[in-house]
Amino acid sequence: MKLGTETGSLVNHMLSGSASEPSLGMGATVLYWTDRKAGTIVRVTPHTFTVQLDRVTRTDRNGMSEDQTYDCQPDPDGATYVFRRTKRGWRSSGVGVLIGQRRHYHDYSF
């Protein structure tokens, strides 16, 4: 993800450079402008993979803070994103991905 045009978050920009190979059932993080949503890889082909967003429950009591923890569980009804392999890495329309980790985060400043 390009900082300033595809993401407004330095953290999301750095996370988008993951070089892991996707595999079925592996965790993933969909990277937005500043938010992150946890998901599970539900389909893999030689040139694409699909991430389905997880059901997340906030487990801390920190309110509108940067310090957030979540419980993430696969959601068979969650929204899906298809990522395609390009010269610049894995891409989907307007979002990036971190393969192998579930990192949910909500930016309350927007």
Explain what this protein looks like in three dimensions:
The protein is mostly beta strands. It has one domain (10-99). It is 5% helix and 38% strand. The chain contains one helix and eight strands. The chain has one helix at 10-15, and strands at 27-31, 36-44, 48-53, 55-58, 70-73, 80-86, 89-91, 96-99. A six-stranded antiparallel β-sheet has the order 7-6-3-2-1-8, with no helix packed on it. Strands 4-5 form a two-stranded antiparallel ribbon. A hairpin with a 2-residue loop joins strand 6 and strand 7. The longest helix has 6 residues, at 10-15. The mean pLDDT is 86.
Q: What would the keywords be for this entry?
A:
110 residues, mainly beta, six-stranded antiparallel sheet, two-stranded antiparallel ribbon, 8 strands, globular
Q: Count the domains.
A: 1
User: Structural class from helices and strands?
Assistant: mainly beta
Distance between the termini: 20 Å
- Rounded Rg: 14 Å
Give the strand line-up of the largest sheet. Answer: 7-6-3-2-1-8
Number of strands: 8
Bin the helical content: under 10%
- Calculate the mean pLDDT score and round it: 86
* Strand percentage: 35-45%
Contiguous uncertain segments of 5+ residues: none
The helix tally amounts to 1
Name the helix and strand elements from N-terminus to C-terminus, one letter apiece. HEEEEEEEE
